[in-house]
Amino acid sequence: xxxxxxxxxxxxxxxxxxxxxxxxxxxxxxxxxxxxxxxxxxxxxxxxxxxxxxxxxxxxxxxxxxxxxxxxxxxxxxxxxxxxxxxxxxxxxxxxxxxxxxxxxxxxxxxxxxxxxxxxxxxxxxxxxxxxxxxxxxxxxxxxxxxxxxxxxxxxxxxxxxxxxxxxxxxxxxxxxxxxxxxxxxxxxxxxxxxxxxxxxxxxxxxxxxxxxxxxxxxxxxxxxxxxxxxxxxxxxxxxxxxxxxxxxxxxxxxxxxxxxxxxxxxxxxxxxxxxxxxxxxxxxxxxxxxxxxxxxxxxxxxxxxxxxxxxxxxx
Length: 316
Prior knowledge:
Layout lengths: L21 H11 L3 E4 L8 H11 L2 E11 L16 E7 L2 H14 L9 E3 H6 L4 E4 L8 H5 L4 H12 L4 E6 L4 H17 L2 E5 L10 H12 L21 H28 L25 H16 L1
Parallel strand pairs: 1-2, 2-4, 5-6, 6-7
Antiparallel strand pairs: 2-3, 3-5
């Protein structure tokens, strides 16, 4: 029986950042007894169809997600002072059909109306389409980490998130990834969650399937940044810290580090997972193709002549 669900996880559709294939992910979940898994690729839902296809094949409950890029206002946050990196990460998970529709709407808007060097949403979009969604505060690039690094009050952002989602659908996300700065940040998150009577959640932020894949992910990540492997200043993930870990291992690490608080953060993943039910179709025969009468078009004769001309040229 599992006591942890991965709720912050990237596949190869987090382009140039992660390398886990949807099939290998679902197969590993099935073989190791993980009944649920979330997929939260960066700014897109491109892999969700394939993930759901293999989730159904292996009997896994897929929780659709997106690690979105959040800015205060998509129109005002432009120009030289708002180049890439000024946004904050936020993990969104769909719990039901309404949440799935809202996740798709937010992703579409982020890649159209909100796009500026990256697909972005703002607080107004988030408030309009928050129904059926759960939000996690994400990583060291997340909505609460950004003010923490700048020594600004995290509580202001946390209050805003709780106002949008409620205390039951916004979670303070802690991770253990071998970085001292992460542990310092976790301490502040735990204190803030206690102060606001909020909920903690434990994640691994997986970017590859097994620990042995750590170096492969580092190669892909380095190429994606246009850097050299031996560049001492390039950003890199701590080695072997972001695999799809086994639930018992995650539970043990968080309990050892944070005691009952860690156990609670891990067990909260199961509350989300067991209440998530998004069974969207990946195959259907109900396509409705519009019927257009070409012969009624004014340029039909011209179209036919041009078609014959192209076919004759191709056969020469």
